[in-house]
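Vesicle transport through interaction with t-SNAREs homolog 1A: structure tokens wanted.
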Amino acid sequence: MTTVDLLQEFEQNYSVSTADITAKIGQLQSLLPSERTTAINEIRRLLSEVEDLLEQMELSVRELEVGSTERNRYENSVRSFRTDRKNLENEFKKAVQRLQRASDRDELFEDGLSVDQEDQLIANTERLERTSRKIQDAYRVTVETEDIGNTVLENLSSQRETLHRARDRLRVGDAELSSSNRLLGVMIQRVIQNRLILLVVAVVMMFFLLVFMYRAL
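Answer:
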């Protein structure tokens, strides 16, 4: 059996197991209290088996050629499966919590609570759930804001480094320009000096030529 065949078998097992977990979570509410403990333990066992299955998939994926289409596909599949498993685990925990709250309410009602007290208890429970959701939402927003802030700070740091490098290049350019200006000034001075020397030589030669011509007459 090839690695791809093995991974395909893992995918099928994963689909069957997660479908079974989803069905069992949905049935928890309708079970008798005496049956719930067994069902909860069974779901925990299935979640553990799914975790083992995902670990085996990860090991098998590593045997595929790096950068190949098959490896990229199964790496994405494993990431998606892990997200699904996490969601199933969270849904399972919520279902167990709902059962626990329902059991606690039943015990209180058996102690002789009035209808008004029952309604008040239910209202308080719902209010606590809404508050808990708001706190979770606020925490999520805080985390997202922190991530955005970190990204902005990283961008600012990168831009600052870019500006520093640009400033350093400008300084080097200014220094080179100043050096070029000084060199150009020296060259201009030398050109002027050479022209003056040529002019003096020409005047002297002209003078001697005139003297020579005068004597020749």
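The chain has a mean pLDDT of 81. Residues 111 and 142 are 42 Å apart (CA to CA).

Cheers.
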